[in-house]
Amino acid sequence: RFKEEDERQRKKIDAKNGLENYAYSLKNTLSDDKVKDKIDEADKSTLEGKVNEAISWLEGNPNAEVEEFEAKQKELEAVAMPIMTKIYSAGGAPDMGAMPDMGGMGGAGAAPSAGGAGGPHIEEVD
Question: What Å distances lie between residue 35 and 52, 67, 76, 77, 120, CA to CA?
């Protein structure tokens, strides 16, 4: 009984952390000096708005369900992917390790790496 609840909680926290990491990774990428020159203002403004919207949503919905976190991440990816593809094809990539995970949250997939000192707060599961 407790094992099922623990598993549900773990999936929820993984989904939340995945979205949070993805949003902060995008935010950090947008502020990278190598990327700033490669992105036009309209794309930057659009993506920053969507990233900030996702972060605000996360702060206001810390207890959302797995499906809600995954849907929000897909929504963010839908805006970010074309813009990031444009940046990377223009040679604006600082390095491939800094590119946010574009794979989505396919079940128990690995979360993208956290972005630097000002990055997200990761919740631990006991």
Answer: 18, 32, 19, 18, 21
Residues in the chain: 126
DSSP 32: -
Cα distance from N-terminal residue to C-terminal residue, the chain: 16
DSSP letter for each residue of 56-100: HHHHH-TT--HHHHHHHHHHHHHHHHHHHHHHHHTT--S-GGGSP
* Measured CA distances, 82 to 39, 46, 104, 105 (Å): 12, 12, 14, 18
> For every one of its 126 residues, what pLDDT tens digit does the chain have, with 9 covering 90 and above?
789 989 999 999 999 999 999 999 999 988 888 887 788 889 999 999 999 999 999 999 999 999 999 999 999 999 999 998 988 887 655 544 444 444 444 444 444 444 444 556 666 665
Q: Is the separation of the CB atoms in 106 and 74 below 8 Å?
A: no
